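Reminder: ligand-aware prediction takes two inputs, not one.
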Amino acid sequence: MENLLEKYDIPAPRYTSYPTVPYWEADTLSEKEWTDHVVQVFQRDHHLSLYIHLPFCERLCTYCGCNKHITTNHKVEEPYIEAVLAEWKLYTDRLPGRPVLSELHLGGGTPTFFHPESLRELLESIFATVDIAPEHEFSFEAHPASTTEEHLEVLYELGFRRISIGVQDVDEKILHVIRRYQTIAQVKFVTETARAIGYDSVNFDLIFGLPFQKQEHIIKTMELVGSLMPDRIAFYSYAHVPWLKNGQRAFDENDLPNAVDKRALYELGKDLLEQLGYYDVGMDHFSLEKDALFQSAQTGTLHRNFMGYTPVFTPLTIGLGASAIGDTTSAFAQNLKTVAEYQNTVATGHLPLLRGHILTAEDLKIRQHILNLMCRYQTSWQPGDQRDVILARLAEPVTDGLVEIGPSGVRVTELGKGYLRNICLAFDARYWDKMPSGRVFSQAV
Ligand SMILES: C[S@@+](CC[C@H](N)C(=O)[O-])C[C@H]1O[C@@H](n2cnc3c(N)ncnc32)[C@H](O)[C@@H]1O
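Here is what comes back for the chain with S-adenosylmethionine:
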């Protein structure tokens, strides 16, 4: 096992998309090309999913790999909301019909940085322009230290039934190392208040592999999980990318667990979660049997996107806000990353696009293989697959017992589930065509 961990602990994508963002082919996808793709998929089905990026945080958590803007000045809320609404209008002006909103996710940054009434203003303005699907899924990321009862009530009134709480770890020392200031009491308050209000799915985000994190910390964190029993758990592998995220430079790399110790933290967490009644539903994700995520894993409808795993698949996602990513299935587009660039571009009446990618027929095929592996641990050969090339890349994983090759396709073994990123890499034609010269991806373990 140690040998395998050392062998496979290489930089590899987390495959929230294919092609992965560094391999997108256009620095700028023209506004027209992107809107043509959006309109095309919209014409087939008016349902859409919205991702709204709310980037502000009052403090920098040093481990954070997300796109954020640190400020304690809440005057930023109003102009940002105006920009998001102006961006949304640029889309609705071009859509040939009234959208049906089936999914909505508020991500960050810290969505709960915004005053509840600011969130109401933003969302009610959007809702005035759409029909809301009867079976809608609305969720938001909640920071335990800034989520108030008022946030929970206002968002519930607006149709939110899922909440994702950023717990990470519960130990005070670890939280101090990562400069994340929150208490167990706040996590309990948010969880219990959300349930009392009527939210039907609570998710905890947890991380293994943080600096100084040991088995005792995982045990303590899982004790809290056991006492609150959230419906879902995202148990993320800490992604150390200091060349992209300055805050992580605060860590001494010697204080990070090595691949073997890091995997032991994961295995311990997984065992404890399974003892509590959670099921493994995909890379780093667990859920209770009654939750829709587990049900969709059973029925084979589980899907993976930029936000992680979801039980529903909507072919069109529009991303609003700085750095947000949209996905039409046939194309991706990401917005400009800084708040200033984003707001200034929207003010000129143009979509604030930073870059994008139009998927080729081969990309689409590989995207489906990677989704199958990530969501169903198997994939079937398709006509035109570069089978020999893929099989050659899988030769070592096969010898190591991570995958089995059958006449109709590839199946990940129980052992291989811990090496999913490495297995997907074998299908990633763009990576092998142009292997990265510098540091691009986090380590696979
Ligand atoms: C987009 S972040 C926003 C969460 C929200 N700002 C909060 O603090 O509660 C969503 C999740 O990504 C995970 N995350 C952030 N940085 C990470 C990293 N470097 N490695 C692994 N997971 C990370 C955390 O678990 C976090 O809760």
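Residues 259-276 form the longest helix (18 residues). The chain is about 40% helix and 20% strand. We will return to this case in the review session.
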